[in-house]
Structures are given as structure tokens and as C-alpha cells.
Amino acid sequence: MTGISQPLITIERHILNQQEQYPGATGRLTNLLYDLALAAKLIARETTRAGIVSILGATSGENVHGEVQQKLDVYADQVIFRMNDHTGRVCVMASEEHDELLQIPDRFKPGYYVLIYDPLDGSSNIDVNASIGTIFAIHRKISPGPRGTESDVLQPGHKLVAAAYVVYGSSTMLVYSTGRGVHGFTLDPSVGEFFLSHPDITIPSPGRYYSANQGHQRDWLPGIQHYVRWLQALDEPDREPLAQRYIGSLVSDFHRNLLRGGVFFYPGDTRRPQGKLRLTYEAQPLAFIAEQAGGYASDGAGNILDIQPHSLHQRVPFFVGNRELVEKAERFLQQHEAQYLAEYVRTR
Ligand code: AHG
Ligand code: MN
Ligand code: MN
After folding, report:
1. Are residues 28 and 159 part of one domain?
2. What's the 341 CA to ligand 1 centre distance in angstroms?
């Protein structure tokens, strides 16, 4: 054979291979992950069409622009729910787009897993054709009885069974971990298959990039200001500064830093002590993946994965990336923001 030097491994094959390493595995998780990959393909198809639909809408004089953007959010949310409401694999779902838990309809049998998702992350980027994403987190059911409850969703991140994200960029990629490393797949849209393109991802060191919305710098605590000065090596002319990259789409910013090395942070500040990002929909699954890739995620006070969530839409300050870069942020906060940290930890 010429031309193809690597085995072609589909996501289905890969998930099955991983399952075969667990004696006694039932295949339920395998099937659930495969359903998520299928939902991702459907969202990817709509994502690539969103731009052209919006242009056609604009020329016909309709205000389709805003509608299209909203539709894609709603579409992603519904596809994921409908893909998983009847399979008997999921007992309850929680979506960033809904205030309340999403129960399995009475006519279907509830299953063993808990599915938490951010259907369309970075949605403000849709109408400018920049990358967006989807984030998934999967827990085991811990409550008694057939239906899932809030306690099933509000589990610490170290209890996660699996986490995944999809980035809809110049190509669509799905990256997942079941606690055995991090593996990335690229969608070949012509055949509708995800192929293994990035086996065993580990975050390279030293990190190259720092990613934060520096427009909020005015509101940042002095400890964060010191941290950024350190990242920029402002006080150490002999040390190379990190370069800054920020898309404003968490999945895309995270993905780039995972492949290239770096740190992403959305800290608590004087206006929003808890930051902006959501613990269960965004921080926990990405922290799980980061740790599996040799990185680390913190809320500034400690490991994100150790936090016991108390509410569905809880926000959390988020630092994620190379361990040494995240730990450096923790040290700057300990040094300069003892009072903020004490108050924050009391109320988180
Ligand atoms: P979502 O679109 O799911 O609401 O998430 C938006 C988030 C996240 O993707 C990104 O990291 C962050 O908002 C950007 O916020 P700023 O615009 O404040 O930088
Ligand atoms: Mn989001
Ligand atoms: Mn979202």
C-alpha cells in the first residue's frame, strides 16, 4: 500500500478498543460516547451552513441574522437531548441552556449515566465565522431510584467517568477522555467519520501561550495583575515572555493551548468574584481532560476537580493548562490575595 502510512482508526473502533481493556464493561458508555459523536456530526453540519444561511437571509432583507444565531444554539441543545433521551443509557441531563434538569420522558426507560453539556460554547463567535464548540461531561448515577436527581449532576469533577469536547474550526475535531489519556479525532465530512488524528495528547512544556480577556484587566485583582506581568516577563528581560492568544471561545482557546502548551484563565475579579465560566458545564470536563493530558486546572485556591458543586449553574474562577503555569497563578494569589481567597473559599 502506498500513500496511507497509518492505520485508519474510527472513533467507534477506538472507543471499543478502550472498552475491551475493562473486563466486565457492558458497552453502555461506549454507546453513549458514540451517540455524542453522532450529535457532534449533526451540529458540525449545521455550523458550516450557518454562515451561508445568514448571508442569504441578509440579502432578502430579513433579520435572519440574529435568528440563525439563536437557532444554532437551540438546534445543538435539542440534537443532544433527542439523541440521548430514549436510549436507556442516560438517567438525567443538564444543559447550560436550561435552568432546570432535563428529565428523560416518561415513555422511555432511564439509564445509568448522567449527561451534562454546554451545547454551543463561544456562541458570540457564530456570526463572525470563528471557532465554536460543544462540551460534554458524564457521571455515573449515584442517587437511588430510577430517575436522576440534582445530586447526580452535582458531583465533584474527580468522579467524572468521561469528558469530551468538539471544536468546530477549520475542521471539526472531537477530543475525549475516559480516564485513560486524551485522544483527538478529526471529522472527514465527505464520509461522515471521525478518524483518530491525535492519539495520546499530552500538553507540551514549556507552554507558549497565555489566554485571557485582558479587556477586564481594570477589574482584576492585584495578584492577577502581577501574574500577567510575570507571564509577560516584564520584570525579567532575560526570560522569554509567553505570547498572548484569545479567541473568546473557551473550547477553541483550550484546544489550542492543549496542543501547543499554555494557560487559559478567566479569574474572579472585583466585579465578579466567582468569574464567568460554569463549573459543571465548562470547568469540570475541561479540567478532567487537562489533567489526563498532564496539565492541571485550578480555581486559584485549589484543584477544580475537588470542588463539590452546590448549584447547577454555579460559576467558578478558572485557570487551566500546563501545571507549572497554573500553579504559578495559585502562588501569586496566595501571596497577594489572602483575603480574597479566604472569602472566596468560604462562599464557593
Ligand atoms: P457560552 O457561549 O457557552 O455562553 O460561553 C461563552 C464563554 C466562553 O466560551 C468564553 O471563554 C467566554 O465566554 C468569553 O468571555 P469574554 O467575552 O468575557 O471574554
Ligand atoms: Mn460556554
Ligand atoms: Mn453555551
Report:
1. yes
2. 23
